[in-house]
Amino acid sequence: MKTIRRNGAGKRQVVADLDAGTGMAGGFTSPSHLLRWILFESSPTSKILAVSLAGVFCWAYWPTLLGLATSWSTEPDYSHGFFVVPLALLFLWLRRQRFPGTTGGWVWVGWVFIALSVAVRYVGGRYHVDALDGWSIPIWILGTCWLIGGWQVCLWAGPSIAFLWLMTPLPYRAERLASLPLQRIATSISCWGLQFLGQPALAEGNTIYLGEHPLEVEDACCGLRIFVGVFALASAYVIIVRRSLWEKAVLFACVVPVALAANAVRIVMTALLYQHVSGPTAKQFSHDYAGWVMIFFAAALFGLVLWYLSRLFKEMVPGDVGSLIRQRSG
Q: How far is 167 from 131, CA to CA, in rounded Å?
């Protein structure tokens, strides 16, 4: 169906081209607008398919979702997982005016993605790689979006779907492979930070001797898992902020130094609490609160990078050179 209006010259002008399968091609402006389209304007086939796939997803992935929630609540470095889904929905809302409308064709591609997610889950269960189970969720959602909305909806929702990969903890073997060099880096930076603060710190291997008290930089303190949270934070910044591509590339380039700084600050704060308060307080901070504190600290560092870039490169406003010369001469 074509929506037509007359312009100022009285000529007919096509405003939108919406046929039966392509509603909301101009985006939606409010939740009620979206809800009205879902309830009254979308096709009955799309509704039945969406409800059926949602039911199958909840039945198949309920144990996986419970396992992810347990990891988020028991492992401080993965506590950012609680924010991944709300942030993904927020990204969709911020891009609501770009919603292309549903399109048909190439439906079989959606079934291919769903079959691929099932295959990934099978491989994860067969070889006991729990991360593959969680990583198959975005593939399933991508296939569902393709089946219901078409490839243009997949492109529109792509950043949010890709962001969901960050809610799954890293495989244990990947953590072990990179833990040793990261432990050494974290020990060196943290020891330097303690010495800078006037503390009697000395590094030997993965141990920091703070006076007579040894402080072990264990695998959990190596900082590998905090990289996931910082990368998720950088991805959120890149999707939300309106900056040039090179500025967004700078943000991603800052992931490594920001993660190293956040992990070093965590170890230094734990050491100071151990030295000046008590051992139980230091352990409670490291295991219960450090993950949340470091996420906010990393967010502040990324904000500082954006502020520095805005101060470093000023936007030039073009002006009239002739009028400027006349003002100076007058």
A: 10
N-to-C CA span, the chain: 62
φ/ψ (deg, to 5) at 213: -105, 120
One digit per residue, the tens of pLDDT, for the chain of length 330 reads 344 444 444 444 433 333 334 455 556 666 666 666 665 566 777 778 888 888 999 999 999 999 999 988 887 667 778 888 998 888 888 888 888 777 666 778 889 999 999 999 999 888 888 889 999 999 999 999 888 888 888 888 888 898 898 888 888 777 777 667 777 888 888 888 888 888 888 887 778 887 777 777 765 555 566 777 787 788 877 777 777 888 888 888 888 888 888 888 888 888 888 877 777 777 777 766 776 777 788 888 888 888 888 787 766 656 555 665 666 665
SS3 label, residue 197? coil
Contacts of 297 (CB under 8 A, 6+ apart): 262, 265
Structure-token pair, residue 136: 């198959």
Which is nearest to 68 in space by CA: 169, 165, 160?
A: 169
